[in-house]
Amino acid sequence: MTTLGAAVAEAKSRFSAAGLPDAAIEARLLIGGLLNLSATEVFTGGDRPLTHAESSRIADSIERRLKREPVHRILGKREFHGVDLLISKETLEPRPDTEILVDSMLPYVRQIVAAKGAARLLDLGTGTGAIILALLKEIPEARGIGTDISEDALKTAAENAARLGLTERFATVGSDWFDQVTGRFDIIVSNPPYIRSDVIPALEPEVRDFDPPAALDGGSDGLAAYRAIAADAGDFLEKDGVIGVEIGFDQKETVTAIFRSAGFTLAQADRDYGDNDRVLVFIGKEA
Questions:
Q1: What is the pLDDT of residues 254-265, one digit of tens each?
Q2: Which of 62, 113, 230, 244 has its Cβ near the most Cβ atoms within 10 Å?
Q3: Is 205 annotated as a binding residue?
Q4: Which ranges carry the Methyltransferase small domain (predicted)?
């Protein structure tokens, strides 16, 4: 019978030998997640004996990671803006940099709630529901809809809403951008696919082989989704509404030009934790 400490040491050693970065951190994160242990419990519980079932599950998960499957996909969930979200095959794994979009939009949602008493939100390409559910969690007066072309993603977003107690304020709609959306919204948010098609084969295996292609591929220039959103957003945005989008590190000028040509004005631009351009916030010309 092996121990927790021995299992963590073995995982770290095998990850290091395979050239994986942050081997020690990933070993603790993976095994702690599998056993539902906190980081402290993993660190201090080295003598904890593992059952045969636990050892087998850990061994299988180590093999999966060595095949470059991301730790959080193996665990089936990831923390985002303070909550654990389920991840599924057709959902993008939420990343910390996307939290910047949530934090950028929160003041606008609060301002609308202060003026109107409520706010209606739309998240285009919702995936796990990460962005809109984080906003709804922070602002009880807000309600929202998440759209996606993937039934798997819509199911996952609904499950995450239920886990967070947000079912009464969140609904899902199967829609290719706006085509099945009705009504008007105070806030529209999106983390659309923005990677150029020709770049995808060169991405790290963790992204290229495990994130859903539809959530990555932004077309030949990476801008197809922004054109679709900007073209129709005016028909679905309230007069004083706001649009927030995540962008690639080199897309600030091009995405701004797309929205400007559709009648929107750049109100705010924010950088991510790596100091790259990451979020653009636009207001309509009548706002």
A1: 999 999 999 999
A2: 244
A3: no
A4: 117-195
Is 219 part of any known ligand binding site? no
Residue 126 assigned to a binding site: yes
Judge whether residue 286 has pLDDT over 80: no
User: Any binding-site annotation on 125?
Assistant: yes
Give the pLDDT band of residue 266 (cuts 50, 70, 90). very high
Q: How many angstroms separate the CA atoms of 115 and 142, rounded?
A: 13
Q: What is the number of H-type helices and E-type strands within the chain?
A: 11, 9
As a whole number of Å, the CA-based R_g of the chain is 21
226 is in an annotated binding site: no
Give the single-character DSSP code of 232: H
Give CB contacts under 8 A, 24+ apart, made by 276-279: 276/249, 277/247, 277/249, 277/250, 277/251, 277/252, 278/97, 278/100, 278/101, 278/246, 278/247, 278/249, 279/100, 279/101, 279/104, 279/244, 279/245, 279/246, 279/247
Q: Is residue 242 a contact partner of residue 267, using CB atoms and an 8 Å limit?
A: yes
Going by pLDDT thresholds of 50, 70 and 90, the confidence category of residue 143 is very high
Confidence (pLDDT) at 284: 84
82 is in an annotated binding site: no
What the block records as the tokens of 227 is 């054109």
Residue 144: what residue type? G
What burial class does residue 31 get, using C-beta atoms within 10 Å of its C-beta: 0-12 exposed, 13-18 middle, 19+ buried? Answer: buried
